[in-house]
Input
Amino acid sequence: MAFVVAVRCCRQGKLNTMADTSSDSAPSRFEVRTTAESHFSWLRTRMSLERTLMSWVRTAISLIGFGFTIVQFFDRLQQLPGIKPALFPDAAWYLGLALIFCGVLALIIAIKQYQWGLRYLWSENFSALAGATKMGMQSSALAVAIVLAAIGTIAFVTVLLRLV
Output
């Protein structure tokens, strides 16, 4: 369900959509009516930002974990006695490195997307719907995403330098 916000064109007073770029971008582009329904729509949108970030975190953890596991597994496999050497011994290392890199990159993009969405929700146009005068409490999902991006970066450097 989309925002239930009355969006009116400033010049003509007729109903307008956000995708319409033909109108002038005046400072008061939107008329926002603060109702209980629009407040809860704002909250649902905020929670959907949280869920999206958590989904990205879950995906990035999987990529980083699989990449690290692939590197470790094939490194240990080649150290076993009686195992025929691989045709391309560094292929698993490159694959693992690529997966770790993709996981860290996904986290960085997700964090930026989340911050952009929050800035938009707390912009002048919609801050009245929040029921608060300034940005509220920060999300624990954001803190987890930042910590995991740092851990993923450490894992990437560790595998890159062959320290494990």
Q: What stands out?
A: The mean pLDDT is 80. The two ends are 48 Å apart (CA to CA). Helices lie at 36-79, 91-121, 127-130, 140-160. The CA atoms of residues 61 and 148 lie 8 Å apart.
